[in-house]
């Protein structure tokens, strides 16, 4: 079952620009997408949101941060305008049935094809080498068996306080990946932070902010290592 930590510190969503965003919203592959970065870059990066969707301000801030390093970053609205909100009459367990990873996997294909023509979703893409590298930030609904099928370099950044993917499970991910020497992998658990911290941290929590920034740098470093 999904725990309450999946929905803690929900962002204030806004369909428009906050004024501090470097990117913009446009259609790509049949989806509304927040896009940031140089349009002629040959380095495309797909950011997949959590249950709160592509309008989350800190997620867009992260997209802008990665874009500043030269990546063309796309954050699709795979939730099709239906993010999980605090006052949603549907429990998360019911909402998630309409937004499972299998659907996200299929939805990602036309976006990736659109990116090519222009110049649990991430794990599924990594299994079939639709992408060149992957990073999971505090993963949900991921199993050890998924790791056995991964074919591209993958980094997993977990939280110490996480009922969905506790450190013990993340360590099992690492063991499974270590058994695949042909796949470069990096696993790290951040102490003192909870599930969702990298994109839903509280600005007044200095420890969480510092850990989020560290995770962002780890993510960026991974992509620079394997894509540049």
From TrEMBL:
It comes from the Eukaryota. GO terms for molecular function: hydrolase activity. Residues 1-21 are annotated as: Disordered. Residues 32-226 form the Dienelactone hydrolase domain. Transmembrane segments: none annotated. InterPro entries: AB_hydrolase_fold, Dienelactn_hydro. SUPFAM superfamilies: alpha/beta-Hydrolases (SSF53474). This is Endo-1,31,4-beta-D-glucanase-like isoform X2.
């Amino acid at each position: 079952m999904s725990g309450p930590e999946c929905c803690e510190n929900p962002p204030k969503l806004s369909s428009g620009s906050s004024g501090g965003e470097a990117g913009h919203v446009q259609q790509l592959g049949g989806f509304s997408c927040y896009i940031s970065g140089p349009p002629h870059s040959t380095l495309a990066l797909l950011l997949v949101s959590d249950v709160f969707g592509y309008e989350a301000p800190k997620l867009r801030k992260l997209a802008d941060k990665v874009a500043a390093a030269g990546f063309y970053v796309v954050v699709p609205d795979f939730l099709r305008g239906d993010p999980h909100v605090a006052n949603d009459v549907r429990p998360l367990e019911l909402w998630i049935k309409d937004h499972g990873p299998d659907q996200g996997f299929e939805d990602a294909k036309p976006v990736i094809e659109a990116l090519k023509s222009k110049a649990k979703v991430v794990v599924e893409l990594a299994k079939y080498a639709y992408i060149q590298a992957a990073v999971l930030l505090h993963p949900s609904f991921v199993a050890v068996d998924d790791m056995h099928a991964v074919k591209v370099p993958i980094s997993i950044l977990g939280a110490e306080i996480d009922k969905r993917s506790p450190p013990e499970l993340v360590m099992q991910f690492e063991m499974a990946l270590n058994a695949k020497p042909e796949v470069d992998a990096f696993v790290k658990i951040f102490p003192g932070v909870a599930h969702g911290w990298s994109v839903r941290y509280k600005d007044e929590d200095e420890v969480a902010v510092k850990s989020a920034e560290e995770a962002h740098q780890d993510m960026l470093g991974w992509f620079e290592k394997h894509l540049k």
